[in-house]
């Protein structure tokens, strides 16, 4: 790094030798963040809006497999995948190959002006792999929020209705409409209102907490919300098959099927937001496949192009084709570089054991983390579906949420070279989204650091209570 704290960029056009593979092991060369990252943070604060947060203030130099190498030489175990997109690793070889080949041809034309085959091929694969046997069509966009917003547009256009039913704990994006759909207020909605009056929220019964009658009570809440506001005015229900930002909450079995039945009864479209849970993360291509439910519209993003900006809406041809020509689009929607990255992802989903690897990571997480629940360490739930994992912290007796404990464990992990981020409705969950391609031994090492942090934090809490005479 130069004396002005600027990164040195290689000369354009110079051919560089291939970089050696990063060792797939955790290594601390300095404290985290190290001196180079700390220096860069000074310039970052001087140049970047404070509206962008950073849970781990380190600057990354390289990434490979399950390792992030920072500018200080620390090798950090990646259990976040860039909040989900880099499911096949942040430096996937086949993605790089396709991107390089496309860079040699062209970077952009805008599909709405002059077209290119990769866009069509991405749509073809999504049409073939989306749940259900109906003939399908797909539209491509750039971000998950953009795709969710367009799913709402399509549902409103097709039905001629305006209202949308969403769910408590939901996160659907940061645009105006998707903030309206999102349930969690802070930090996503604070100060940005007013929001749409046509969006209502109802609770979701979860698989680990649901009482015997929770499913029917929750479905009754859905029916009640519809009848109170006239079901004939609702265009769609939108739900994440696993509520990621809520802490990887898994709806109680039968809830999604119940929504499907209610939607059919009233002519309402069911939208599955698979931005975070889709593309193999849960051991299936789509998380909703675990419940054998077919949505009317399916939204994908994040891992769709393994870190390149691409999103999609897929649905029955009659619904998707209802919108008039030029009613959908976007300058960068389905950018050719992103489409090539998606085709590289599809190749690997079709020909490699990606889904099996996600399932294996889930088994490892269950084996290592589930014994912590109720063991006096402040872990009140561990939710696992493939490589989508939530560790919830709270009081062992009352189950009252404990956000400080979650943050303390996260801080311990970061100091010891493991990227483990907090989230949840009450910020009391550590959500793990490891790259599906992470080596099992490295994943186990990362989980052991989390376990060590949980045990140390629990010990500190006990000592604090003892000192207070409690």
Which labels suit this protein?
4-stranded mixed beta sheet, 7-stranded mixed beta sheet, disordered N terminus, 470 residues, alpha/beta
- SS-derived structural category: alpha/beta
Largest pleated sheet: 7 strands, mixed
Number of helices: 12
Helix proportion: 25-40%
Shape: globular
Report the C-alpha radius of gyration, rounded.
23 Å
As a percent range, the share of strand residues is 15-25%
* N-to-C series of helices and strands: HEEEHHEHEHEHEHEEEHHHEEHEEEH
The overall pLDDT average reads 93
Name the strands of the widest sheet in spatial order. 4-10-9-8-7-5-6
Q: Give the distance, in angstroms, between the N- and C-terminal Cα atoms.
A: 51 Å
Number of DSSP strand runs = 15
Low-confidence parts: 1-10
Give a description of the structure:
With 470 residues, the protein is α/β, with parallel strands linked by helices. Helix content is 35%, strand content 15%. It contains twelve helices and 15 strands. It has helices at residues 35-47, 93-103, 117-129, 144-159, 176-181, 214-228, 255-266, 317-320, 336-351, 354-369, 403-415, 440-467, and strands spanning 60-64, 67-70, 75-78, 136-141, 163-167, 199-202, 234-239, 269-273, 297-300, 311-316, 379-385, 388-393, 418-419, 421-423, 429-432. The strands form three sheets. It has a seven-stranded mixed β-sheet with strand order 4-10-9-8-7-5-6, sandwiched between helices. A four-stranded mixed β-sheet has the order 1-2-3-13. Helix 2 (93-103) runs antiparallel to helix 9, helix 10 (354-369) packs parallel to helix 12 (440-467) and helix 11 (403-415) crosses helix 12 (440-467). Residues 1-10 have low confidence and may be disordered.
């Amino acid at each position: 790094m130069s004396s002005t704290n600027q990164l040195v960029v290689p000369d354009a056009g110079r051919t560089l030798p291939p970089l050696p593979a990063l060792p797939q092991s955790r290594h601390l060369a300095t404290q985290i963040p190290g001196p180079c990252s700390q220096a860069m943070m000074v310039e970052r604060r001087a140049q970047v809006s404070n509206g962008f947060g950073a849970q781990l203030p380190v600057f990354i130099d390289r990434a490979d497999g399950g390792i992030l190498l920072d500018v200080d030489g620390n090798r950090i175990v990646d259990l976040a995948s860039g909040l989900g997109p880099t499911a096949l690793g942040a430096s996937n070889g086949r993605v790089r190959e396709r991107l390089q080949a496309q860079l040699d041809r062209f970077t952009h034309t805008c599909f709405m002006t002059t077209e290119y085959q990769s866009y069509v091929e991405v749509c073809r694969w999504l049409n073939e792999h989306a749940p259900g046997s109906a003939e399908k069509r797909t539209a491509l966009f750039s971000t998950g929020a953009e795709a969710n917003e367009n799913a709402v547009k399509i549902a409103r256009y097709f039905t001629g209705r305006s209202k949308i039913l969403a769910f408590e704990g939901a996160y659907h994006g940061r645009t105006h409409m998707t903030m309206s759909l999102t349930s969690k207020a802070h930090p996503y909605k604070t100060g940005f209102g007013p929001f749409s009056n046509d969006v209502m929220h109802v609770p979701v019964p979860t698989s680990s907490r649901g009482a015997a009658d929770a499913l029917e009570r929750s479905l009754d809440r859905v029916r009640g919300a519809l009848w109170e506001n006239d079901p004939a005015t609702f265009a769609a229900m939108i739900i994440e098959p696993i509520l990621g930002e809520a802490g990887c909450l898994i709806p109680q079995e039968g809830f999604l099927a119940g929504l499907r039945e209610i939607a059919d009864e009233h002519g309402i479209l069911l939208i599955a937001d698979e931005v975070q849970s889709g593309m193999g993360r849960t051991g299936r291509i789509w998380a909703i496949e675990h419940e054998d439910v077919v949505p009317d519209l399916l939204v994908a993003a994040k891992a769709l192009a393994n870190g390149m900006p691409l999103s999609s809406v897929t649905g029955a041809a009659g619904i998707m084709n209802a919108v008039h020509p030029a009613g959908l689009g976007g300058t960068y929607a389905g950018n050719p570089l992103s489409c090539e990255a998606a085709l590289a992802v599809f190749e690997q989903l079709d020909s490699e054991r990606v889904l099996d690897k996600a399932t294996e990571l889930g088994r490892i997480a269950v084996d290592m983390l589930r014994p912590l629940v109720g063991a006096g360490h402040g872990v009140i739930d561990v939710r696992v579906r493939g490589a989508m994992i939530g560790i919830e912290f709270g009081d062992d007796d009352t189950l009252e949420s404990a956000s400080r404990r979650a943050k303390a464990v996260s801080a311990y992990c970061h100091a010891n070279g493991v990227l483990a981020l907090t989230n949840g409705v009450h910020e009391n969950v550590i959500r793990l989204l490891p790259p599906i391609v992470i080596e099992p031994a490295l994943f186990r090492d990362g989980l052991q650091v989390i376990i060590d942090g949980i045990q140390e934090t629990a010990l500190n809490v006990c000592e604090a209570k003892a000192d207070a005479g409690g």
